[in-house]
Amino acid sequence: MKHLTIVVPEGEGNNISSIVGSYKIFTRANAYQKESGGRALFKIEVAGTAKKVEYHDGLFSVKPHTHISAIAKTDLIIIPSLNHNYQKAVKRNVPLVRWIEQQYRNGAEVASICTGAFLLAASGLLDGGICSTNWAVTDSFRKMFPAVHLQVDKLITDEKGIYTSGGAYSFLNLILYLVEKYYGRQTAIYCSKVFQIEMDRQSQSPFIIFKGLKSHGDEVIKQAQAYIESHWNEKISMERLSTTYAVGRRNFDRRFIKATGNTPVEYLQRVRIEAAKKAFEATRKNVNEVMYDVGYTDPKAFRDVFRRITGLSPLEYRSKYNKDRFELMN
Questions:
Q1: At 53, is the secondary structure helix, strand, or coil?
Q2: Which residues lie across from 112 on neighbouring strands?
Q3: Kindly report the CA angle at 311 between 128 and 212, in degrees rounded to 5?
Q4: Mean pLDDT, the chain, whole residue set
Q5: For position 13, what pLDDT does the model report?
Q6: Are residues 281 and 256 in the same domain?
Q7: Which has the minimum average pLDDT: 12-16, 26-30, 102-106, 217-221?
Q8: Cα separation of 29 and 324, whole Å?
Q9: How far apart, in whole angstroms, are the C-alpha atoms of residue 84 and residue 148?
Q10: What was the pLDDT predicted at 113?
Q11: Which of residues 179, 207, 235 is at a domain's end?
């Protein structure tokens, strides 16, 4: 029998749902295997460095089965999401981070949920590799771990026995992914139906709310960002914009990418598409009306950029998120 460890980091405010959810789904997968004439695949243990960890001002608590030091070898580690003080969380859980690294070196696979990626990245195991996490913490993560290639558009990453997932309750999709990997497709389908989790989701792009990075120190680029965010529905010449700030176009692009992670054109596209998303969510305007409102005149260009950024076509997004969607369908 393989061994599964769901770790419980120390620190007030961590996400208890990803611990409980992981435990319940893997437990059900074990039960289904036995009901189908097989045997349980994993011995599941919840482990940490404290006897009890409290959540939500003591309203809930988790008492791990065992201390991590009692587990000499495990096959799969699940790291739940953290609170929002990531630097403090990493410092407080150094022994756990070292244990995770050592177990990986000994052959274990590791999966991080949402902001649990901060603990995983602190181990150094993600350096030079890919990772997803909650889109809302992109800036903080990139600052702390510049050697990691963050891919927040992806719901799940899978590389060299390391798995990461996007934000919040998308952890359910990661756990289902792992169930399929270890138990097989049929068990994953069963768990999908029992827990009503949509299978095979690949992207968290539709859920991302774009907020341009402003915590950099380049004042010229901050001014350029402010201009784009105030004039996104107008025709903006990046050549003219760079000239306005007395910066050559090539140097302007280089500084913009360094400061924000996007080219000036990509930044404008993301600001426009964010405006389009809000229009689709809150108004009855059709696709063409929204397209013109946000500064596009070419329907194909608008559709292509919208799908690239959100993972959905404009019509699909409108149908899914519009407040009056049921009336619009009739």
A1: strand
A2: 79, 164
A3: 65
A4: 92
A5: 59
A6: yes
A7: 12-16
A8: 39
A9: 19
A10: 96
A11: 207
Tokens 């007030």 -> residue: 12
Collapse the DSSP code of 47 into the 3-class scheme (helix H, G, I; strand E, B; otherwise coil) and give the result: strand
Per residue in 192-215, pLDDT tens? 999 999 888 778 887 787 888 888
**Measured distance CA(180)–CA(26) in Å, rounded:** 11
Q: What pLDDT was estimated at residue 14? A: 64
The whole-angstrom separation of Cα 108 and Cα 118 is: 19
Quick one: pLDDT at residue 214?
86
Encoding tokens for residue 23?
A: 């435990």
Which neighbouring-strand residues pair with 79? 112
DSSP collapsed to 3 states, 145-189: CCCCEECCCECEEEECCEEEECCHHHHHHHHHHHHHHHHCHHHHH
> Which of 255, 277, 263, 267 lies closest to 212 in space, CA to CA?
267
The tokens describing 92, both together, are 């407080």
The amino acid sitting at 100 is: I
Q: Is 249 in the same domain as 310?
A: yes
Query: 184: alpha, beta or left, given left = phi > 0 and alpha = psi -120 to 50?
Result: left
CATH number, domain of 313, equals: 1.10.10.60
Over 50: is that where the pLDDT of 330 sits?
no
Sole residue written with tokens 């994953």: 188
Two structure tokens written together for 260: 């924000």
Note the pTM of the prediction, 2 decimals: 0.75
Residue 275: give the domain boundaries.
219-329
Helix (H) or strand (E) holding 76: strand 76-79
What is the rounded distance in angstroms from the CA atom of residue 313 to the CA atom of residue 226? 28
DSSP letter string over 294-314? TT---HHHHHHHHHHHHSS-H
Note whether 104 and 134 are within 8 A (CB): no
pLDDT, residue 208, reads 81
User: Average pLDDT, stretch 107-119?
Assistant: 97
